[in-house]
Design a protein that fits this description.
73 residues; alpha+beta; two-stranded antiparallel sheet; 2 strands; 16% strand
Amino acid sequence: MLHQRKVPIQISSDTHHPDDITKGFEVVSEQLQRIGYRTQRVLLDGIWQDVPLKIQANLVRFFKIIIRLFLLF
């Protein structure tokens, strides 16, 4: 229903542990794509922009690596 009305979406997290920052993002991204979403709204350089959900999945993997590296130090 929201997708049909062209309501933009954003995937976010409210966690208290660094390992959980992106928990569930990949599953949610896949589900959103199944119902028709292709992008999510992201704040970049102070401007809301639409970013492809497929890029989102790659960013999730990237952030997981960065978080693990950060926790090593």
